[in-house]
């Protein structure tokens, strides 16, 4: 009987020891998972480590949105159909400054900032306007290009649209999630608005008679007018300028300082003027 009782006590003690051991392992695993989660979150939250991360991996990954010449567009003459343009030149200048390789991820404009927040790209360079609303979530570099906000129309309608009031009740098209879309909503509330993923889609709406005008910044609109003699800018214009800047996650002031240095260097040496001319011509030829 005593031997039986002793065996039962020993068995109970062994079970307790096993349970305690399992509990300790689960706790440690949970702690490790929490640490891992915190580390992964920090890498995408813009905590000031972005510059170090870029240099560590030896690569700068930027998000852009082709279909917006001369800022960025697909080079149909290249063997790999790569994205080229003013913003890609700027991105390459930044990568060179950091001493790293450049990787370009092309996506819809409406996906750019969410991809930035998710840490899928290091920065977004796509003719992005640094609006007050966007500044609440992201930091922006100094502006590197400035342009008028214009309306592209069919040349046959030139006499119909001399002022913004002439567009009342008319359908306008604009690229989705852009300042042009917001401008239509704010300044042209009486105009039905068609929001599409890319400017070429908007131009197609205009040419097919489904829209009466396309709101676009002048630098971009010029490309379509140069390559299509049935289009022109309306005399009616907005009283606001479109600025373009680079977007990054907040808390990366050291990287922001470098971006501003690169922008100033290329403004002072005339590269931006050269890039606008070079890629405007290239985009026009690619569209022929």
Shape: globular
CATH architecture of the largest domain: 3-Layer(aba) Sandwich
Radius of gyration over C-alpha positions, nearest whole angstrom: 27 Å
What is the tally of helical segments? 10
The topology string of helices and strands comes to: HHEEEHEHEHEEEHEHEHEEHH
Relative helix content: 40-55%
User: How many DSSP E strands?
Assistant: 12
CATH top-level class of the largest domain:
Alpha Beta
How many discrete domains? Answer: 2
In round numbers, the mean pLDDT is 86
Distance linking N and C termini: 100 Å
Q: How much of the polypeptide forms β-strand, as a percent range? A: 15-25%
Structural classification: alpha/beta
User: The biggest beta sheet, please?
Assistant: 10 strands, mixed
Classify the fold: give the CATH topology of the largest domain: D-Maltodextrin-Binding Protein, domain 2
Relevant CATH superfamily of the largest domain: Periplasmic binding protein-like II
Low-confidence runs:
1-46
